[in-house]
Design brief:
single chain; 6-stranded mixed β-sheet; 5-stranded antiparallel β-sheet; 2 helices; 41% strand
Length: 608
């Protein structure tokens, strides 16, 4: 497919760097970040320009603390790394990190030595790798930055010292260092770094020597090298693709304009972007071009189908390997109640939304005591192939362990695949697990992680219990009464195998529909369930003596803190396998130009 002109940079830039990373706000996917460069006025610029591929618009983000050009950039979960470069007077060891959510830069551990015109790539292990550069001499230095530790580690040097090279991580997890120049002139050299073994090898060189080029990984699994400067010092428009499976280079459609000192990255839309650079007149340009690979629409893009919280694609199994129903309606934020301090089987359903197998997909199972970004613990990690246009059930080798009574725990699954442009980095720590509320790309319903919330509580006949709930603190001069209500219905043991429920269940099984969402959560069926007398009592933190013993109860309570509790007792004649559905409503009164609204919660109580 040919290259197309895209909306230009707001500021021309020669020698910028570029990376795709999380957008500033949740639910908005990824952005392309173009960093620094020479704008034709300043020797070095600190400007950060961001491109939204869903709206085809450029905007600016907070500038880098240090103006520079000929730097390197890489991305990781929720971060953009700006590394090295020149301030126009000499090389820098500067390393700065941008947090899109905080919309702010921080200064991080510098490189071991100052250098410009270096390359960078994010490894499959989540480390940031940098290669070569120039400090008055051509360098073969290789270093890796560990975002968790905040430290750099020296690694075996490149066989060929050089600067103005391009670096890109391939679909096989190897990092390819392409072209560049040394004291003899431009190079066609391509060397490959194996992250797992910290060793170098050499592969087929470029068809022509070139430096100050850019590269990106296409969603078709090919590596694209484009633009740059030839041995005569002129920018070129050549584009080559490399197939890691055959080690062969192929000439592709040329750039629309010959450009050197440009930046390149794979956008969140799967397109290859050539950004800025220097024209054949030696002037900075604002040009942006995009390339659609021939098989972009059929490239591997594995994802957890429902993603987000309370995903039915995370399956918990009891001691008889029977799936435990999710605690709430599909899409709800309600917890599954589990017996405390018990082991449960853990499975994940991983989908592949493409017509080719998603090889090398890493499925990681995590245990989180809290929400996104907390200190999760890795339970198990497996590498699988997800079939084309299909799904795969992956079973953790280790169980999920529920916490002590009243503990809140999350079962989490994260995926990564080296051929996916969106989920190519395997999280090394719990804080690296991709936010489950942000689709990649935006509005695609593709998520890099899925979560299932659980609470630990052992229920049996005659047992009393208390559930804490929160309505959210009211920021008003005085608290207003929040109407709190609760009621319960009973799902008798074996209900799904009798009457109308059994008929519907049989019809679903006949059609091959997966039955992970229990039928009692279907509103039409749930409406016919019998009312359960649990002696419900609702009270706020401020008024613990407010109570009632009615089955269906509602009252007005001034709930300033937003904390309230629902208490009750399981009937003494409850049988093993019975289920009670507890519905709680909090109705906020109209005030301060806000309309009245009601929030509903649901707890599913299993008798074990």
């Amino acid at each position: 497919m040919p290259w197309t002109n895209e909306p230009s940079l707001l500021t021309a830039a020669s020698g910028p760097a570029a990376a795709s990373a999380d957008a500033p706000t949740p639910q908005s996917g990824y952005r392309i970040y173009a960093l620094g460069g020479n704008n034709g006025v300043d020797l070095a610029d600190a400007t950060v320009q961001t491109y939204d591929t869903s709206t085809d618009t450029w905007s600016t983000a907070p500038s880098m603390p240090t103006a520079r050009l000929n730097l390197a950039a890489a991305s990781g979960p929720n971060r953009v790394y700006a590394i090295g470069g020149s301030d126009g007077m000499g090389p820098l060891a500067t390393h700065e990190i941008f947090d899109p959510a905080a919309n702010d830069w921080t200064t991080a551990a510098p490189l071991s030595s100052a250098r410009e015109s270096l390359g960078a790539a994010t490894g499959p292990d989540g480390l940031i790798y940098v290669f070569g550069g120039y400090d008055g001499s051509y360098l073969g230095v290789t270093e890796a930055y560990d975002p968790a530790a905040g430290t750099w580690t020296s690694l075996p040097a490149m066989p060929t010292a050089r600067s103005a090279l391009a670096a890109v991580t391939g679909p096989n997890g190897l990092i390819y260092v392409i072209g560049g120049q040394d004291s003899t002139g431009p190079l066609a050299t391509v060397e490959v770094f194996d992250v797992a073994t910290s060793t170098w090898s050499t592969t087929t060189p470029l068809p022509s020597a070139v430096w100050a080029l850019a590269a990106g990984l296409g969603p078709d699994g090919l590596i694209y090298a484009f633009g740059g400067v030839d041995g005569n010092g002129f920018p070129v428009s050549t584009v080559y693709s490399y197939d890691p499976a055959t080690s062969a280079w192929t000439t592709q459609d040329s750039l629309l304009a010959a450009t050197g000192f440009l930046a390149g990255t794979t956008g969140p839309d799967g397109l290859i972007y050539a950004i800025g650079g220097q024209s054949d007149l030696g002037e900075p340009v604002a040009t942006v071009e995009a390339f659609t690979t021939a098989t972009a629409q059929t490239a591997p893009d594995p994802y957890l189908g429902n993603g987000s919280y309370q995903s039915p694609d995370i399956i918990l199994l009891d001691s008889t390997n029977t799936p435990i129903p999710i605690g709430g309606a599909p899409g709800g934020a309600w917890d599954t109640l589990l017996p405390p301090n018990s082991s449960f089987g853990l499975q994940a359903v991983v989908y592949n939304d493409s017509s080719v197998p998603a090889t090398g997909t890493i499925v990681s199972f995590w245990h989180f005591p809290g929400g996104v970004g907390t200190a999760g613990v890795l339970i198990d990690s497996q590498t699988v192939t997800v079939p084309a246009n299909g799904s795969l059930v992956v079973t953790s080798a280790n169980p999920f362990q529920s916490g002590p009574p009243l503990a809140h725990e999350c079962a989490v699954v994260a995926i990564s695949c080296p051929t996916s442009p969106y989920f190519s980095v395997n999280p090394a720590t719990g804080t690296d697990v991709i936010d489950p509320t942000i689709p990649h790309p935006g509005d695609s319903f593709h998520y890099g992680s899925a979560w299932r919330n659980t609470n630990s509580l052992l229920m049996s006949g005659g047992m009393g219990w208390v559930f804490p709930f929160g309505t959210g603190r009211q920021i008003r001069p005085s608290p207003l009464p929040v109407k709190l209500g609760a009621n319960a219905v009973k799902v008798p043991a074996g209900w799904q195998d009798r009457g109308e429920a059994a008929t519907i269940k049989g019809a679903l099984e006949f059609t091959g529909a997966a039955g992970r969402v229990p039928l009692f959560l279907v509103p039409e069926l749930r409406a016919g369930l019998p009312v359960a007398d649990l002696g419900l009592r609702v009270y706020s933190k401020e008024k613990p003596d407010d109570s009632t013993a009615e089955s269906n109860w509602a009252a007005a309570i001034a709930c300033e803190s937003g904390e309230f509790y629902v208490a009750g007792t399981i009937p003494a004649d409850a049988q093993l396998g019975d289920i009670y559905l507890l519905t709680v409503q909090a109705t906020y009164p109209a005030a301060d130009r806000c309309e009245e609204r009601t929030v509903e919660y649901l707890e599913v109580i299993h008798i074990r």
